[in-house]
Amino acid sequence: MDDRLLQNNKPNIPAPPGQSKYQYLITSFRDQFSWEKTFTALRHPNYKLWFRGQMLSLFGTWMQRTAEGFLIFELTHSPLYLGYVGFAMGAPAWLFMMYAGVVADRFPKRTVLMITQAFMMVLATILAFLTFTGLIQPWHIITLAFFLGVANSFDAPARQAFVLELVERDDLTNAIALNSTIFNTATAVGPAIAGITYAFFGPAWCFTINAVSFIGVIIALKLMTLKPFIKAEIKTSALADLKEGLKYIYSEKIVLTIISLVGVISIFGISYITLLPAWAVTIMHGNAATNGFLQSARGLGALVSALFIASLGRFAFTGKLLTIGSFLFPILIMIFSFLELLPITLVVLFFIGFSIILIFNLANALIQRLVPDELRGRIMGVYSFTFFGFLPVGALLMGAMAEKFTEPIAVLIGALVTLSFSVLIWYRVPGLRRQQ
Questions:
Q1: How much is the average pLDDT of 61-85?
Q2: pLDDT tens, position by position, 94-104
């Protein structure tokens, strides 16, 4: 077994005499926390370029996602169509994403990313044109969402595995946390700007801004100075390579547990996001701006969580934090399902965003630390597939349940399933809590 796996599976370090393990954990938290550590990964020039390019691009991405969801709800007045869009965007993951992990191991990741980003820019331009001209129909949005999902299927594994080419391994957790900071800064601000832009100027301008924003990340990728890509000798088929990655996951209980947790949350937990446009109208009695505020409250909480994780630096209680997040998230979702007042809902969504990042950031970091480099693209392909591939299933399921029952009941059912799985992990896989 890999030495790193042995190291990461070592038992808990006992608390000093006179301290309980919980007091010791709090003390460790306080000692580790430092804002000076928050932006450590930015000392790497390539990562700094990536950080700036992604920040610009993701603002546009979240403006489009927010406007797209509200536009199709405005056209159809059906929460089921929100599920259709989510399903269309995620379905390609089932067809391509695990194979895309093999592509990420075999070809230069920068090249893959430049192609996918350019393709996404073209799709955003088409969506803007159709909306400006008044030709836009629900099937246009669903079709373009499908092709965006195709691009994302190849983009996600390469993007996840690319981080280690931008920073040293010791700064990997910090870089992943900063990636999440970028994403969630955009999640916090982008939807609010999209809601205001939508209300005053229309959805087409949201799509246009997104199309332009891709230029930043493409330029950043072009400017990077990377080590020469050494193409590995291909001795086996892509299918054999994929089987090797799956066999590794199955043989490593902690890796399999983390990926399973992400899968369950993708189907039953985070799919509540699909219903936020309908929630803004039917529960909050609001409009496009209300939808933007709901999305932004969640994003702001996620941003604070990402900054919190980054500020901890190289901490040794990753498994404990991940476990806390796995319980906190579904409990907060259950509370959310009963709320009708906007101010309280925004506060709860803030903490929902905080808890989900504890899960996804730390799950990503743990897996990347545990897996061997030669399997990284394939394992991250499976990880990305678990997230993006199961999201459409959850979106379709959540939309169908909301159509048959109500939005709050659909969200409550999903939260109960997620919480049950977290309890199962607590009892069956205690080793996850010991991961450092």
A1: 85
A2: 888 878 878 87
Note whether 146 and 96 are within 8 A (CB): no
Q: What is the pLDDT of residues 91-150, one digit of tens each?
A: 888 888 878 878 877 888 889 999 999 999 999 999 999 999 999 999 999 999 999 989
- How many Cβ atoms from other residues are within 10 Å of residue 106's Cβ? 14
- For 255, the token pair is 């890796």
Q: Go through the domains of the chain in sequence order and give each one's CATH number.
A: 32-225+236-434 (1.20.1250.20)
Residues 238-261 have a mean pLDDT of 85
| Structural contact between residues 295 and 62, judged by C-beta atoms closer than 8 angstroms | yes
Assigned token pair, 418:
């997620």
Q: Is the pTM of this model over 0.70?
A: no
